[in-house]
């Protein structure tokens, strides 16, 4: 035996080595179970122009116009206009959506902080097209949902900015 080692110390050393090996194996096993960081491919795919341009159906339903609404938001998102309510509403109106049927969130919070994202909606009958554009990275989402409220005429819950321009 090497100098300084005793039989009494030997089991403790083996125990420490075994514990270290077991800890390493457990650590590797748990790291293999950890979810991979999210890939941005779905987001990047979302920003890509569709192969065939979606159609606007002036008398169509919200679900029929969702692809077109999504494309308008995509074009806005890849553009250079400031992410604020007025430019988003203007883009939707220029695309043919009725400004009188829209709602938009405020550009700033009640404490004068810039909003993290802008929500805009278009009500079509008792259905809504709802979009969100994130200020920081210009990412966006669009969906269609049922209108809410006692008259089924509200798309964005809470106080929204008047569209008076």
Molecular shape: globular
Structural class by secondary-structure content: alpha+beta
Largest sheet: 4 strands, antiparallel
Number of DSSP strands?
Answer: 4
Overall average residue pLDDT? 84
Helix content: 25-40%
Strand order of the largest sheet: 1-2-3-4
Rg, Cα atoms, Å: 28 Å
Please report the distance between the alpha carbons of the first and last residues: 90 Å
**Uncertain parts:** none
Count of DSSP-assigned helices: 4
The helix/strand series, from N terminus to C terminus, equals HHHHEEEE
Strand content: 15-25%
Q: How many structural domains in the coordinates?
A: 2
Question: Tags for this entry?
Answer:
single chain, 165 residues, alpha+beta, 2 domains, four-stranded antiparallel sheet, 36% helix
Could you give the topology of this structure?
Blueprint: H1 9-33, H2 41-47, H3 62-78, H4 85-94, E1 102-104, E2 117-124, E3 127-134, E4 140-146
Antiparallel strand pairs: 1-2, 2-3, 3-4
Give a brief outline of the structure.
With 165 residues, the protein is an alpha+beta fold.
């Amino acid at each position: 035996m090497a100098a300084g080692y005793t039989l009494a110390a030997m089991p403790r050393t083996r125990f420490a080595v075994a514990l270290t090996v077991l800890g390493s194996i457990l650590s590797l096993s748990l790291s293999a179970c950890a979810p991979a960081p999210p890939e941005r491919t779905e987001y990047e795919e979302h920003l890509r122009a569709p192969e065939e341009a979606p159609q606007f159906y002036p008398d169509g339903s919200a679900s029929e116009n969702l692809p077109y609404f999504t494309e308008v938001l995509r074009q806005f998102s890849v553009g250079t206009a400031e992410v604020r309510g007025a430019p988003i509403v203007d883009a939707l109106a220029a695309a043919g959506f009725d400004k009188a049927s829209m709602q938009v969130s405020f550009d700033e919070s009640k404490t004068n902080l810039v909003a993290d994202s802008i929500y805009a909606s278009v009500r079509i009958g008792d259905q809504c097209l709802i979009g969100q554009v994130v200020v920081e990275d210009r990412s966006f989402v669009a969906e269609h949902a049922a209108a809410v409220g006692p008259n089924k005429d509200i798309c964005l819950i809470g106080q929204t900015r008047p569209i008076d321009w």
